[in-house]
Amino acid sequence: MSHSDTQYHVRPGGTLRGNLRVPGDKSISHRSIMLGSLADGVTRVSGFLEGEDSLATLNAFRAMGVEIEGPDQGQVVIHGVGMHGLKTPNGPLDLGNSGTSMRLLAGLLAGQGLDLVLSGDASLSGRPMRRVTDPLALMGARVETTQAGTAPLHIRPVSGLKAIDYALPVASAQVKSCVLLAGLYAQGETCVTEPAPTRDHTERMLQGFGYEVKKEGSRICVQGGGRLAACDIDVPADISSAAFFLVGASIAPGSDLVLEHVGMNPTRDGIITILRLMGADIEVRNQRNVGGEPVADLRVRHAPLKGIRIPEEQVPLAIDEFPALFVAAACAEGETVLTGAEELRVKESDRIQVMADGLQALGVDARPTPDGMVIRGGRLHGGEVDSHGDHRIAMSLAMAALRSDGDIRISDCANVNTSFPDFVGTAARAGLDIGVAHE
Ligand code: S3P
How close is the Cα of 67 to the center of ligand 1, in Å? Predict the structure, then answer.
């Protein structure tokens, strides 16, 4: 079989203008399928992300016997099977590139008495899974990893789970969600305490499905043995996909862009806080609440950016946005310093090293550190860069061309489809001079 590399070829300059709505939120799309499948009744989802990651979750539930209609232009109809209605799939569940699918499903499936295997692509098979299998083991689950603590995960049937009170060793919404979802099947009250706030879509959506979630400070608890009642879900546009355009419009002179219906959950809005600290001109308009999640339209205009020391408490609130923020830092005046972000090394790629390599190839003074990066803003040149199959790296480096003095060619971009179908078309309509080559 021949392997074709999807390359982006981005020409320098341009401005971003107009109105656009980026695709649906990935985190919320995953969770809509998971909870909708376990609910009693029919859940209707609109704005669902038709990207490979959330489709991996959708296909996994289909393989476990759930009838799911769509997706059709973001509409999905899920015929819930109830908390104990899933069936053993015929083979391993292939979750592709999606860490969220694997870590949340490990918890959701640990106590269901099923015997199954969760597998993924090369990137996902290199990511740490003991962070979820350790707490699950404390609950009495049997979820086996490889010797290296990685996928494939083999979930063995157990007779029941016991509740735990777990202090998360890392600020991770995936680990928090894994334990809470396992807790739905445990006897007693399962609690997790977060070292820092992380995205709370699981908690919000459980409540939307009528499941009680108790939150006291940083401690979140669920009582096992409840049921979920089907509901309708309107998925907002993904702020993590909007991030590339927030940065692009901020760095490209003459830009004036409106991003519509963007999810503004306060556990996700670090990108706006950090860009504003750098001097960005972002106006939040028409704030509203849609199905338990805050949403707004964002108007962003070009503004001169300055380097900053990024506040560490913002790191979990912008955890997926650092590839884009590094591009902003490369275009800012002065030095930007990121610390406390070692988690970036275990994302879809090592985002500290891969972004440092990419920016250096474009002539930027970018110095990786064990837990972050120091970037001195300056001139960007054209060059050839490798995204290492990481969707967010590919899209971030594409935006860098708005300020480079030569063409930027980016390799290994096919995984952009995991989170942002038709990124190239959307970016081109907004004003980026981007084309695709398959080699
Ligand atoms: C996610 C949580 C984050 C984030 C990921 C999606 C989620 O991961 O990076 O893209 O949907 O819960 P961690 O919880 O591991 O930081």
Answer: 27
User: Which among 25, 27, 178, 241 is the best mutation to test ligand 1's pocket, defined by most ligand atoms within 8 Å of the CB?
Assistant: 27
Index of the ligand 1 atom closest to the CA of residue 240? 10
Give the C-alpha separation, 6 to 52, whole Å.
16
Say what percent of the chain tops pLDDT 90: 98
pTM given for the model: 0.98
Q: Locate 419 and state its tokens.
A: 């989170």
Residue 92: asked if its preceding bond is cis (omega within 30°), the reply is no
Residue 419 and residue 237 in contact, taking contact as beta carbons nearer than 8 Å:
no
Contacts of 28 (CB under 8 A, 6+ apart): 201, 205, 233, 235, 236, 263, 293
pLDDT tens for 102-132 read 999 999 999 999 999 999 999 999 999 999 9
CB 402 within 8 A of CB 13: yes
Burial of residue 162 (number of CB atoms within 10 Å: 0-12, 13-18, 19+): middle
Pocket test for ligand 1, best of 130, 181, 319 (most atoms within 8 A of CB): 319
- In this prediction, residue 1 carries a pLDDT of 38
Supply the pLDDT for residue 3: 55
pLDDT in tens, 310-320: 999 999 999 99
Angle, helix 173-183 to helix 26-38, in steps of 10 degrees: 10
Residue 320 CA: nearest ligand 1 atom is 9
- Is the link from the previous residue into 152 a cis peptide, with omega within 30 of 0? yes
Q: Please list every protein residue whose CB sits less than 6 Å from any atom of ligand 1.
A: 27, 100, 172-174, 177, 198-199, 319-320, 343
